[in-house]
Design a protein that fits this description.
The complex is a heterodimer. Chain A is an alpha+beta fold. Helices cover about 30% and strands about 20% of the residues of chain A. A 4-stranded antiparallel beta sheet of chain A has the order 1-2-3-6, covered by helices on one side. Chain B is globular and about 50 Å long. Classes of the chains: A alpha+beta, B mainly alpha.
């Protein structure tokens, strides 16, 4: 293992830059990892400073190969902005995740990760709007492979995020987080037949499924426990938020695998289609 | 902030930095003329970066259009204490370009390594001295990387590959790739003198 294959730098600086900062600065994290890592940055000003320096550095790479777009592009952009309203609120002066109302509009708070105002992960985090991720953040680095951060606000009642009570949301999120932050969490990522992927994070017999699957109009994704030759339903995946569904599995029992299939709305007793995902459950 | 005064990364081309920053700050108050200045100051690097990732003029122009409109809309979020205006928009543009690469059907047909090749040189006749100096500086910094660091940076930044994919491509442990990317950027940062002032 060679974590040390490359040169170190002058004293004191490297410690401020944690291991994912480089990949983050180069946009070399997938969406889920990025969201987790940015949450970590939100909770750690020192890490954030270090990571932002690296991102500023990365943004200069393109200096070596500048290119001029055609003049009509400039005209088109300048014409378009004349009709485009701007966000008006001044951003909050500094970071701090703090109390960010769940309903916060995009305009009122400073981007947690500045420079990424169009970042979907950021928008998801805003919608989610819940403080206190230090623990999760710490775990984010340990359990890097953990995907997902796109907690559906309420996985069981997909259509109705807004009416779900805060308490229910938080309970659910706590369950999800307790899995994602579990020290011994194991991560299984499986590509889905026909596109997309599912990441399953296991903590003991609890699990969180992070499904990144294409929409299936008039159908639903259903999760299955596979136990030898038998299959039983583990529930229906909620409608995705920003393309992803999160599902908390309180107990995987003695199952050896988790499957996902496309089923009629409301689900089926037994799978009626070939599973598009089969993820082994680690022993 | 208690341990460090962060006035943000400082680029060496301070004059240039200042003008793009000021222009964006003014644009945030609705100044369209200032936004045009911001566009002029930053678009060569924005377009150059996007083009190198996407390697397609039409798509790159789309991304540039989207990202400048987004910049106009969200200009109030730019915080000069946390980085340069050019860095802000290049970051947005790069992320969009990478998202396109990753979501596009064509990405599987794409030869990632081809993305590393440098495109034809800039043909503008009106490069200013400070632009040339900055380019030289970045090139010098890049040449300070080890070949494996350079390869990893290119695969990530221009190839749009995730660190996981790079690890697979290069048959390296993920930890090695993470470290390599981080150390490469730290090296670049130090050579370029991007520091916390």
């Amino acid at each position: 293992m060679s974590g040390t294959d490359d040169a170190t730098t002058r004293g004191g600086t490297r410690e401020d830059v944690d291991s994912l900062a480089g990949a983050w600065a180069l946009d070399a994290l997938d969406d889920d990892e990025r969201a987790l890592y940015e949450r970590h940055l939100q909770s750690s000003p020192a890490a954030r400073d270090g990571a932002e320096q690296l991102r500023e550095t990365a943004s200069r790479l393109g200096v070596t190969t500048p290119a001029q777009p055609p003049p009509h592009l400039r005209a088109s952009i300048l014409a378009a902005i004349a009709d485009t309203p701007q966000e008006r609120s001044a951003p909050a002066a500094s970071v701090v995740a703090g109390a960010r109302p769940a309903s916060s509009g995009r305009s009122v708070d400073a981007p947690a990760a500045p420079g990424a105002p169009v970042d979907l992960a950021e928008q998801r985090r805003r919608r989610r709007g819940r403080p206190g991720y230090a623990l999760l953040a710490a775990a984010a680095c340990a359990v890097v492979a953990v995907g997902g951060v796109t907690y559906a606000v309420d996985a069981r009642r997909d259509a109705d995020r807004l009416s779900a009570t805060v308490a229910a949301q938080e309970r659910y999120q706590e369950q999800v987080e307790s899995v994602l932050t579990s020290a011994g969490a194991q991560v299984v990522r499986v590509d889905a037949t026909g596109g997309g992927a599912a990441t399953v994070v296991h903590a003991g017999t609890r699990a969180v499924v992070l499904a990144d699957l294409p929409p299936v109009p008039d159908r639903q994704y259903q999760l299955w426990f596979v136990e030898g030759q038998t299959v039983r339903s583990a529930g229906l995946l909620p409608a995705p938020a920003d393309g992803r569904s999160t599902f908390f599995v309180p107990d995987t029992g003695g199952a050896s695998g988790l499957g996902i299939s496309v089923e009629p709305v409301g689900g089926s007793q037994q799978p009626t289609t070939q599973p598009i995902v089969l993820a082994p459950i680690p022993a | 902030m208690s341990t460090m005064t962060t006035s943000g990364p400082r680029a060496t081309g301070a004059a240039e930095r200042g003008s793009a920053d000021d222009a964006l700050l003014a644009a945030a108050t609705g100044d369209q003329h200032a936004f045009a200045q911001f566009y002029d100051a930053t678009v060569p690097v924005v377009f150059g970066t996007v083009l190198r990732v996407l390697r397609d003029h039409a798509q790159s122009e789309e991304v540039v259009q989207e990202v400048f409109l987004e910049a106009w809309r969200t200009a109030v979020r730019f915080d000069p204490a946390r980085g340069t205006a050019r860095g802000w928009i290049v970051t947005m543009a790069h992320r969009r370009a990478v998202d396109r690469v990753r979501s596009s059907q064509a990405s599987s047909d794409r030869d990632e390594r081809a993305g590393i090749r440098e495109p034809a040189p800039y043909d503008s006749v009106s490069e200013e001295v400070e632009v040339l100096l900055e380019r030289e500086e970045v090139q010098r910094a890049l040449s300070a990387l080890t070949p494996v660091q350079r390869e990893a940076v290119d695969l990530a930044y221009y190839g749009g590959r995730t660190h996981r994919e790079i690890a697979e491509d290069l048959r390296l442990p993920l930890g090695t790739v993470k470290t390599r990317l981080r150390d490469a950027l730290i090296r670049l940062r130090d050579v370029m003198g991007v520091t916390v002032a």
